[in-house]
Every structure is written in C-alpha cells, then in structure tokens.
Design goal:
- The complex is a heterotrimer.
- Chain A is an alpha/beta fold.
- Chain A is built from ten helices and ten strands.
- Chain A has helices spanning 43-50, 73-80, 98-109, 114-127, 143-154, 173-189, 201-207, 225-229, 234-241, 257-260; strands spanning 3-14, 17-28, 32-36, 58-63, 66-67, 83-86, 161-165, 193-198, 210-215, 218-223.
- Chain B is an all-alpha fold.
- Chain B has one domain.
- Chain B has eight helices and no strands.
- Chain C is of the alpha/beta class.
- Chain C has two domains: 2-31; 37-143, no CATH class.
- Chain C has two helices and eight strands; from the N terminus they run H-E-E-E-E-E-E-E-E-H.
- Chain C is elongated and about 85 Å long.
- The chains are: A alpha/beta, B mainly alpha, C alpha/beta.
- Chains B and C meet through helix 2, helix 3, helix 5, helix 6 and helix 7 of B and helix 1 of C.
Chain lengths: 264, 258, 151
C-alpha cells in the first residue's frame, strides 16, 4: 500500500513551547487515517502543515513525493487543488449562497460551461442531502447543515485527499451519524484518501482504518482501532476510555494545595 | 541588557510587519481587473467602499464649505477683502480639506468596515478555507478591496471639494450678499490647475492608498478573536488618521513650500 | 443587491466623481479661461513688482482681459520684466496705455491694471507697454511715513 502523505521527523514550536517533537506519520492511499489526541496537542496545526498553511521548523511533509514546505506559492496552490479540507466551523463564504459556495472551486479552477457547473454542484449537494437548500445563505443553515455544505464544497473538485478538522465536534447524534455515513461513503465510492483529526473516540474508531495517538508532541501509539482499544499502556487507556485522571493529570500544574489555602 | 534585547526584538518585529504589509500591497497591485470574474469582484467592492461613502462625504463637504464661507467672510470683511472669499474657500478645499477630511471620513466609514470584514473572515476560517480551495485570498479578498479604495478616494475627494465650493457660495453669496461674479472670478484667477488641482488629486490618491492599505493589512493580520477584531478596527482608524495627517504635512511641504 | 442595480450604482458613482473633477478643473480653477491659445503677448517693465505673481490677472476698467504669464529680472537694467497674455479679442490697447500694479482691497492679491490711452496706434503681439507704475509696497510706505514723523 502506497503512502500518499509522509511525515518525517516533524518539529514545530510556538514561543519556545514544543508542539511537535520528531513526529513520523503515514497516510495510506485510499484509507481513512485518524489523528487523535487530547485538545491542545496541535492536531489542527498538523492539518494546516499538510495543507501548507504553516511551515514546520524541522522535518519534512511530502505528498506524492513533493515536499510541501519547500514549494513556492504557485506550486502550492496547484497542489491544493488535489486536497480538500473541512474546517471545524465549516467556513462557508458568508456573502454567497450555498450553491455558489460549492460552485466556487469549480468555477475558479475549471473552464466548464455554467450548465455543467450547475449539474456538478447539484450532484454534490444531493450527496450531502442539501439539494433543496441551494439558494439559502450560510447564515440560514444550522451548524450541522453548514458542515455538510462545507463538505460538499471540499469535495467539489473530487480531490485525492480530504482532511477533516474535528468533524464530529458539537454535532447532535443524528448529525454525527450523517457525517460518519458521508465520510465512509466518500471514502468507499470515490476512493478518496481521508485524514480525520478528532478527539471523539467512539465515532472515529468506527470508521478509521488506522489511528495515530498524539500526546505531548509525540506519537504515543499507532495501529488499527482494535489494537488501540485493547492497548495496555496507561496513556492510551486513559484517552481511549475517557478516564478523568491518569497519566494526563486532571489538575493543571499548580503549587501545593496547602500553600494556596494557607495551611502550610 | 533585557531592555535592549526587548527593544531589538520589537524593532525586528516592526520591520517584519512592515515588510509583510508591503508584500500584500505588491501582490494586490499586480492584480488587475482583466477578467469578468475580477470585474465583478471589483464592482462589488466599489459599491461598498465608494458608493456607500458618497452620502457622508457629500453632506460633510456641504457643511465644511458653508462653515468656510461663514468664517472666511467674517474674517476677510475685517480687512475689506470679502471678494477674496471664493479664492479662500476653493484653495482651502482643493489643496487641503478636500483630500484630508475625505480621507479621515473614508478611514472611519470604509476603512473600519474593511478591517472588520477581513478580520471576521479570518476568525471564521474563511480565509484559510479559501487557501485550501486553492484560491489566493490576497487576490480574491484583498486586491479588489485595495483597488476599490484607490479608485474611490480621489473621486470622493473631488465630490467633497465641489460640494464644498458650492456650500461656500450658498453662504457667502446667497446668504451674506457677496457678488456672485466676484466669488467665482476671484476663485478662478487664484486657483491654478496644475499647482492646486493636480496636487490636490495627487494627495487624495496617496491618502487612498494609505488608508486602504492600512485597513486591509490590519484586517488580514487581526487576532482571530472578537477582541482582536475590535482592536484592529480601532488601529485602522487611529493609524490611518495619523498617517494621513502626517503625510499631508510632508506632501504639502514638497508641493507648496517653495 | 442585484447585479444590475450594483452596476448602475457604481456607474453613477464613477460619473459623479469624474464630473466633480471636471467642475474643479473648469469652474474652480478656471482652466477654460486659458489665454494661451488665442492671446497675444505684451511686456511691461517695472522697477518693483511687489507681490505680483505669474497667473495674476490683468484688467482694464475692472474687466479681466488677460493674465501675467512670466516675471523675470532683466540682467541689463535690473528691472522686472512682466510678460502679459492678453485676450486676442481685446485688440484695442493703445500704445500710450498705462500698466499699473494694484492691490485688490488693502491686503488682497496684486494684479495689473491697464488704463487705455487715446492714441491712434494700438499694441500688437510682442510690443512693450512703455508707461508703467510699480507696486506700492506697504512696508516702504510705512517706512517713509515713519521717517517723516521722526524729523
């Protein structure tokens, strides 16, 4: 199985605080790869680096053999046409209708006549169940609908790889089920490679083929969902089973309790 | 030593943001509305930046002209030089007040809106998602707004000056009884096309670039939070007002100081 | 907003803006009263032009008939030589006309007043007005008055 994206020795720091410390990671072609970890471990940052919006301090990220962090602006924008990204907030353009949002990538990157564009857009909207909402403005959509519309836009150009940033966060159970089904079917029917960044263990484990667990700037563990769920390591157990206390402490680092209350 | 280190760090950071803003300006300047798509983007921004600022500029121009007429008449009549009112009103407007006051109004009306809009697009990840779609936000979002500002500002300043001159006439001639002919003929003999009018237009062009540049940069570099956008909007109005007044002094010294 | 209305609004804005430019150019700066095209030139020598500047008007009996084109200092006799552009329609300035530098109001701008004489012959392009009266410089006048008082 070929790796579409290879991350090797990735290092990144913000204000001397290390976010990534020599991370290695592979995204296999046609598979759903999940990157999981507690909030604040830089999962979204990793997606942004794959998309070329941030540059790593060290190490390489390659897609199809091209080193993303050394591409010039033009080459980067060309490469991005092969990627789709679903943002956490949906990030629909608020000054145009749902239809125009989905049509934008097609209109910008192809010279198809408007009738073809219309058919393509309606097909994508049909796939996410929003064909009837094509004339609505983004502000008129619910959170779940906005995310589905954004998904339709992300796959409008049928990219080779789709990146999902916290797709399940803040969704009701029905919306969650719809998104799970959509991601799975996009992966199976269109053969798209998927990268999911999430901290929702149960949902992600349902559809992911391979999971990387990220904590403290390092890959703590990686393997198939079953492998991880049965793992004995306390770090892995705590995260996968959602325990309040464990190696990742419940308390934010603080001085001794007694000194704060004056009993020392 | 810490103090000096901090100063050095600040200096480097300031240089960096200056360079970054210059690059934005450069990228946007190369963008020309040559395609239908770009023409539409520019049109929409011209409407929002230019047309929507027209009313406030026109009304302010009228009042400033009327005040100039009133004050000028009272002062000049002490020296028996009321006939010079037209000249005073027109020169004040064409050389100074037209470009400067319009730029200040423009910063408050259009500049703050530009910053808030771009900042909000950044905060809601619209700019990032645009990049991921493979569309450069510098081209799609920033450039049309910059060009709309460059084009609108001189036109607005011209409207301001013309309405101001008629406002001065309204007070000086129609209200205070100055002769209509001497108001205009004095003005025409005193105002020189190249020295005064063209220099006034150059001023308003420069101010247009300054204000929209600052507004767009502040929006593009806003911290993506509610408070951050508020700060950036304030900075746009403060910085562009100061920049306009400061650069106005320099331009005046170069243009009119012999 | 519909695309059509948007275009109309922006179009109107551009028209209004350019119209404002035209008004400034013609109505405010008086560009239409350019004497360069159909005018003829006269010169006049003054011992002192005071605050007279290029672009100042030249009038006769209060009617503007031309304007000052250039002012330069003659290297031979150190007098100011003023070149006037006079409207071609005013072709009846006699050779004994008097050019005087006067001030509009007490502190107003300075202009050239031409009093037309009674001679048969008229001035043509390139001629010189022989009879001139220099500017009254207020400071000199005050200085003389002060001097007479102190005697």
């Amino acid at each position: 199985m070929m790796s579409l994206i290879e991350v090797r020795g990735l290092c990144y720091a913000i204000d001397n605080r290390s976010i990534f410390d020599h991370i290695d990671l592979d995204v296999k072609q046609g598979k759903i790869t999940a990157i999981m970890g507690p909030s604040g471990t830089g999962k979204t940052t990793l997606l942004r680096m794959i998309g070329g919006q941030l540059r790593p301090d060290g190490g390489t990220i390659t897609m199809d053999g091209q080193n993303i962090s050394t591409l010039n602006r033009r080459a980067l924008y060309t490469l991005r046409q092969r990627m789709g990204m679903l943002f956490q907030s949906g990030a629909l353009f608020t000054d145009m209708t749902v239809f125009d949002n989905v049509a934008l990538p097609i209109r910008v990157h192809t010279t198809l006549p408007e009738t073809y564009v219309r058919d393509l857009v309606l097909m994508k909207l049909q796939a996410v169940g929003l064909r009837g909402a094509r004339d609505l403005m983004p502000s008129q959509l619910s959170g779940g609908m906005a995310r589905r519309a954004a998904l339709a836009r992300a796959v409008a150009l049928e990219p080779e790889i789709v990146m999902y940033d916290e797709p399940f966060a803040g969704q009701d159970p029905i919306g969650m089920g719809v998104l799970l089904k959509l991601i799975k079917s996009l992966n199976e029917t269109m053969g798209m490679t998927s990268v999911i960044v999430s901290h929702d263990v149960a949902e992600t484990a349902q559809i992911a083929d391979y999971i990387y667990l990220l904590a403290d700037g390092k890959i703590v563990c990686h393997g198939t969902p079953d492998h991880l769920l049965q793992h004995k390591d306390p770090h892995v157990c705590q995260f996968m089973q959602g325990l309040a206390d464990g190696p990742v402490a419940f308390d934010f680092p603080a001085s001794d309790l007694r000194s704060d209350f004056g009993c020392a | 030593m810490d103090f000096f280190q901090q100063q050095g760090k600040n200096a480097i950071e300031n240089m960096r943001s200056l360079g970054r803003s210059a690059l934005i300006l450069w990228h946007a300047a190369l963008w020309l509305p040559v395609s239908v798509e770009r023409y539409r983007l520019l049109l929409r921004q011209l409407y929002r930046v230019g047309v929507l600022s027209l009313l406030i500029v026109a009304v302010s121009g009228l009042f400033i002209g009327m005040v100039l007429g009133l004050q000028g008449f009272n002062t000049l009549s002490r020296f028996g030089a009321e006939q010079a009112l037209g000249q005073m009103v027109a020169l004040s407007l064409v050389r100074e007040l037209g470009p400067v006051v319009t730029a200040l109004l423009f910063a408050g009306r259009a500049g703050s809106a530009l910053t808030a809009e771009i900042g909000l697009m950044k905060a809601t990840e619209q700019l990032a998602s645009m990049e991921m779609i493979g569309i450069d936000p510098l081209h799609r979002v920033v450039a049309p707004r910059l060009w709309a500002g460059f084009i609108s500002m001189p036109l607005l300043a011209a409207v301001f000056s013309v309405i101001g001159v008629y406002g001065g006439q309204l007070v000086g001639v129609n209200l205070l009884g100055l002769d209509h002919g001497s108001y205009w003929s004095n003005m025409q003999s005193a105002v020189d096309f190249y020295d005064d009018v063209v220099n006034g237009i150059i001023k308003s062009l420069v101010f247009g670039v300054l204000v929209t540049w600052i507004a767009v940069y502040q929006g593009y570099n806003a911290r993506p939070t509610a408070a951050g956008i508020g700060e950036s909007t304030t900075r746009t109005v403060v910085f562009s007002s100061l920049a306009v007044l400061g650069v106005d002094f320099l331009l005046t010294a170069v243009m009119f100081g012999d | 907003m519909q695309a059509k209305h948007l275009e109309i609004a922006v179009g109107l804005f551009l028209v209004v803006g350019f119209f404002a430019f035209v008004v400034i150019a013609i109505q405010v700066s008086g560009l239409n009263r350019d004497y360069n095209s159909d005018s003829y030139q006269l010169t006049a020598r003054f011992s002192n032009v005071g605050g007279l500047q290029a672009g100042a008007k030249a009038s006769s009996a209060g009617v503007t008939i031309g304007r000052v084109k250039t002012i330069h200092l003659d290297s031979d006799d150190y007098e100011a030589v003023v070149t006037l552009a006079i409207d071609a329609r005013v072709d009846f300035l006699t050779i004994d006309s008097i050019a005087a530098i006067q001030t509009a109001g007490v502190l107003g701008e300075q202009y050239i007043s031409i009093s037309i004489g009674g001679d048969e012959e008229v001035l043509v392009d390139g001629d010189e007005i022989e009879d001139t009266a220099s500017a009254i410089v207020l400071e000199e006048l005050i200085g003389k008055v002060m001097a007479s008082f102190s005697k």
